[in-house]
Amino acid sequence: MTGSAEEDATRVFADHRELLFSVVYNMLASVADTEDVLQETWLAWVSRNSPGGDEIEHPRAYLVRIAINQALARRAAISRRRETYVGPWLPEPLVAGDAQTGDSADAAEIALRSESVSMAMLVVLETLSPLERAVFVLHDVFGYSHTDIAGMLHRSDAAIRQLAHRAREHVHARRPRRQADPRTQRRVTEKFLVTSQRGDDLAGLLELLAPDVTLWSDGGGKRRAALRPVEGRERILRLIANPGLLQQVPALEIGYRLVNGDPAAVLFSDGVPFTVVVLDIDPATELIRGIYAVSNPDKLAHITTRAG
């Protein structure tokens, strides 16, 4: 490839990298695996743009097709890793900057960030088959038509429509369509963490939790975490109160961040990320129906090491 051709290929890939990252991450929920797939996509793209090759009329469609098929191929390896994973597996959190969502916040910026698939949604997507997940991500998240997806996945339109219908029914049965607004999310998150950190206000905690609340904690066998989801507010209260969900963390600081588009929190110990806490809140009752705590250090390595 000539210098000019390589520069052109690099520029086109860079222009689409953010989209490709989002598509693949929503398929794999792992930053490291997503980066590996993007590298494979880049190599395929460079090879396709070698001298003498035919010009690609629609680079965006071509790149997404390569990336989504590389992601599908990687799902098998990820599934094998999960078989030996210690405790519940949660998606690797994508952490943005300050999660301030007051009246003066830039609504457009919040809306843009909220295009990310939430932690709770990613957990539901894990229950789909790889093909169902690919179709759901491409159609429902990124707005690709069934015909375009059929071309990307080498399936008929009818097959893609069937996969889309099955995936949507599955997701909607497990995930309510409405979510709490960002200000409610931030307020309840702050109250939950402050109350949990004190550890002596069980009545205050009880008021925040839905009766059927579930706690998922992912330590990956490297940090203390429950080996199974904890269901019911009484069991979760006992876990928080004894020995204390947050009191066990030395030199704890809380940094409020956007995690997968939702206001959430990063717990820092001596300036190093220790746990990411994301709450799933019922918009009607404003009660916490799900708690996701990711403390596996491998999944937190990319987070800025300061509470801020």
TrEMBL record:
Query: What GO annotations for molecular function exist for this entry?
Result: DNA binding; sigma factor activity
**Gene3D superfamilies assigned to the protein according to its UniProt record, in alphabetical order:** 1.10.1740.10, Winged helix-like DNA-binding domain superfamily/Winged helix DNA-binding domain
Where the record annotates domain RNA polymerase sigma factor 70 region 4 type, the positions are 120-170
Boundaries of every RNA polymerase sigma-70 region domain copy: 13-75
Q: Does the keyword Membrane apply?
A: no
Is Transcription regulation there in the keyword field?
yes
Instruction: Provide an example Pfam family for this protein.
Output: Sigma70_r4_2
| Biological process, per Gene Ontology | DNA-templated transcription initiation
Family that this chain belongs to: Belongs to the sigma-70 factor family. ECF subfamily.
- Indicate what this protein is called per its UniProt record: RNA polymerase sigma-70 factor (ECF subfamily)
Q: Which organism is it from?
A: Nocardia transvalensis
